[in-house]
């Protein structure tokens, strides 16, 4: 079932997981709301013990650009996405939304969407289903404090050097565009 949340980025979709609970705990099953361009054959988990941890804004260029299904399975995060796709009606725009174990929302991100998050609780875990394996040569990060003007809600307590020294939006968009022409 699709949530009431409408994406501000073209092609991004949200689905609501169906939570089934009993005395053993709970079980959540997601059904993607559309046919995916590629099969999602890679899985990743991000374990984040500290409140205020910032990861991203990450993306991969072709031939390793990724479709993603992103879910917070423990805790809560402010999820941020940026549209790098040339010709998209939302090119250059970013938006944010909360993903949490409590709201059981899953976000579908098409290729060309940079993704990052900041933990809103300690011990947050993010689950990814991806259409491509990690490729260091095709992987980039946009500076989350740079020219996009993102207002992160918490003081950042942990961020990688790669992320804090990330690309400007313009350079990231050029890298993505160039990969489409190759």
Quick summary of this structure?
This protein has helices at residues 161-164, 169-181, and strands at 13-16, 18-22, 25-29, 42-48, 54-60, 68-74, 76-83, 94-100, 105-109, 113-119, 124-130, 139-141. The chain is globular, with a radius of gyration of 16 Å. The longest helix has 13 residues, at 169-181.
How would you describe the overall organization of this protein?
This protein has 182 residues and is mainly β. It has a single domain (13-181), classed as Jelly Rolls (Sandwich), CATH 2.60.120. Helices cover 9% and strands 40% of the residues. The protein has 2 helices and 12 strands. The chain has helices at residues 161-164, 169-181, and strands at 13-16, 18-22, 25-29, 42-48, 54-60, 68-74, 76-83, 94-100, 105-109, 113-119, 124-130, 139-141. A 5-stranded antiparallel sheet has the order 1-9-6-11-4, with no helix packed on it. The chain is globular and about 55 Å long. The protein starts with 12 loop residues before the first strand and ends with a helix.
């Amino acid at each position: 079932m699709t949530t009431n949340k409408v994406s501000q980025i073209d092609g991004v979709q949200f689905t609501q997981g169906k939570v089934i609970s009993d005395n053993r705990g709970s079980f959540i099953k997601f059904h993607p709301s559309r046919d995916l361009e590629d099969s999602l054959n890679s899985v990743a988990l991000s374990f984040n013990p500290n409140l205020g941890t910032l990861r991203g804004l990450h993306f991969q260029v072709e031939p390793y650009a990724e479709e993603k299904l992103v879910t917070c399975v423990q805790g809560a995060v402010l999820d941020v996405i940026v549209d790098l796709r040339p010709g998209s009606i939302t090119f250059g725009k970013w938006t944010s939304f909360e993903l949490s174990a409590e709201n059981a929302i899953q976000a579908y991100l098409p290729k060309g969407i940079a993704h990052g998050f900041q933990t809103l609780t300690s011990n947050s875990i993010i689950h990814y289903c991806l259409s491509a394996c990690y490729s260091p040569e095709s992987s980039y990060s946009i500076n989350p404090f740079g020219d996009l003007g993102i207002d992160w809600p918490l003081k950042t307590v942990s961020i990688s050097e790669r992320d804090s020294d990330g690309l400007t939006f313009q350079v990231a968009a050029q890298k993505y565009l160039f990969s489409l022409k190759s």
